[in-house]
Amino acid sequence: MAEIVVVRDQDAAGELAAGSILDLIAAKPDAVLGLATGSTPLVVYRALERGIRERGIDVSHVRGYALDEYVGLPADHPESYRAVITREVVEPLGLTPSLIHVPNGSLEGIEHAGADYEKAIAQSGGVDVQLLGIGTDGHIGFNEPGSSFASVTRVKTLTEQTRKDNARFFASEDDVPMHCITQGLSTILKARHLLLLAFGEGKAEALAGAVEGPVSASNPGSAVQLHPHVTVLVDEAAASRLRNLDYYRYAYANKPAWQTL
Ligand code: F6R
To answer: What is the 8-class DSSP label of residue 148?
Structure first.
């Protein structure tokens, strides 16, 4: 079962996630991080920035692989995930740019971009910790409902719901690309630790479906139930539809001191 931790607010989630990631980097300076974009992980990146400074951790050897990228958006477009990862993660944390990878969403070579990305992740030795947000339609990465649990990095069509949700980053919904390239559910499940974060009432149903719903391709987030090491960090609003909430609180309150996230 995933460990579900209900936190006071987003900042508390950011601190917990960052603490776990920094402990990993301290023990393994060339750790491989799985990076997510969107609004949810921003608190983690800000907490990492503070933690790196305060603990004086050398992050120059840290490697990273982003979950996904829009297809057909120029890499220098401010909302391309390459640009977002550079602006929100690489620069503020002081990571080494050449060690941080984002799937190649340019149309040239898109046919083999997925396979290339899979190969690069495998050659790195695999992702140590994967940050995940969840879409209101239940997607993780951009694996929309119906995505195979065996899927690997490939091109997908975004749902209308996801394009609506992401319109806030663009001038209009029409400007949100129709296609993306995303790590598959099988790719994500290969990471050694999954850190799934969700905040706000709008995520409550998707989160409950992922954690407690039937394991189904119609509900891509439910793939996390197949992974042996998942930590879910949620605020009260996002946790509001969980049936076993009392037990999650009880288990966390009585967590053995020697256990980490
Ligand atoms: C982003 C990603 C998506 C987002 C999800 C939630 O790389 O893969 O799964 O995590 O769409 O987005 P936010 O955090 O903006 O609500």
So the answer is: -
Q: Which of 137, 165, 193, 235 is catalytic?
A: 137
Ligand 1: which of 10, 67, 79 to mutate, most ligand atoms within 8 Å of CB?
67
**Active-site residue identified among 15, 118, 128, 144:** 144
pLDDT of the residue at 74: 87
pTM of the model: 0.98
Q: Is residue 259 part of a domain?
A: no
**Local structure of 229: helix, strand or coil:** coil
Residue 97 included in any domain: yes
Per-residue model confidence (pLDDT) at position 96: 98
CA–CA dist 68, 213 (Å, integer): 25
The pLDDT of residue 175:
96
Separation of alpha carbons 73 and 106, rounded Å: 7
Residue 192 CA, distance from chain mean position? 13
CATH code (residue 207)? 3.40.50.1360
Residues with pLDDT less than 70, the chain: none
Beta strands in 61-138 (DSSP E): 63-66, 68-70, 100-101, 129-132
CA distance 60 to 254: 37
Ligand 1: atom nearest CA of 133 is 10
Cα–Cα distance list, 38 to 66, 90, 196, 229, 250 (Å): 11, 15, 13, 23, 31
What gap in Å lies between CA 133 and CA 69, rounded to an integer? 15
The yes-or-no answer on residue 137 being catalytic is: yes
State residue 1's pLDDT score. Answer: 78
Residue 79, CA distances (Å) to 83, 106, 182 in order: 6, 14, 16
Told to judge if 205 belongs to the known catalytic residues of this protein, a careful annotator would answer: no
Is position 123 within any domain?
A: yes
User: What domain range is 70 assigned to?
Assistant: 3-253
